[in-house]
Structures are given as C-alpha cells and as structure tokens.
Design a protein that fits this description.
Blueprint (H helix, E strand, L loop, with lengths): L1 H5 L3 E4 L10 E4 L6 E6 L8 H9 L5 E3 L2 H7 L4
Parallel strand pairs: 3-4
Antiparallel strand pairs: 1-2, 2-3
C-alpha cells in the first residue's frame, strides 16, 4: 500500500468485503482508472470464493505477489 501511495495512488483495503472480492482498491490519478488487486504471498493460490470472483468479474482484476507486480499492473513499471 505504501508503494502505491508513494506514486500518488489512492489505496483502500477492501479485503473485509469477503465473497472473493480482492484485497485492494487502487485509484490512479494519472489515468483516472481503478484497479482491483488480490495480494498473494509466495505460491499461494486463490480461495474458492476468489476463484469464482475472478472467473465472473467482467472488469479489471489482478493477482499481485510483489510491489513490482502492483506497480506493473497500474502501469508504473
């Protein structure tokens, strides 16, 4: 979250929504776009609810495993 905020993004943790909704909502001030980011550590995979969400959601959503991944998703790397 700190790295995304350092490049000017708005960041809200939404992991408590549940039902497979990703962990972060990120707003990019440059493009005006919003990004849904699911944070995973190591080789952990999606839970059944997350898999269902990722399969059914029609908009952007990404899995990130590092700061670099997150910055790449928003177009800063």
């Amino acid at each position: 979250m700190d790295a995304l905020r350092a490049v000017g993004c708005s960041v809200v943790s939404i992991h408590r929504v549940g039902q497979g909704v990703p962990d972060l909502l990120v707003g990019d001030p440059v493009t005006g776009c919003n990004f849904l980011l699911e944070i995973k550590v190591g080789k952990s995979g999606l839970t059944p609810d997350e898999f269902r969400f990722f399969s059914e959601w029609q908009g952007q959503r990404d899995i990130v495993r590092s700061v670099e991944d997150a910055l790449r998703v928003i177009g800063r790397m």
